[in-house]
Write a structure and sequence with these properties.
The chain is mainly beta. The chain has strands spanning 2-11, 14-25, 28-35, 38-46, 52-59, 64-74, 77-83, 88-99.
Length: 103
Amino acid sequence: MTEQYQVTIQSQMGPREGVLTLRYQGNYVTGSLDLVGYVNVVQGVQAADGTLHLFHPIQTVVSTIPCETVLYLRAGSLRGTSTLKSAKMQWEGTLVHQDPREE
């Protein structure tokens, strides 16, 4: 199954809009985060309660920041937090596309 979310991440530089694409294979999750002109590879797992635990970089003009993100999915929306070395960023998003076919 593939899902695509329109997301807003509250960064230290203000809100940033992006697109999170997730592909599920069992409880393993891969995908991408398209944010501020860069496409970042996302990978992680989905816990039994549906919570996503993702690991990914966020690339900017200045640097590439490794992140650990925990997202809670509910009724077509997501909320969560990315933990970086020096900060935390809040996420919110809305499901914009879902393809139930297995890849």
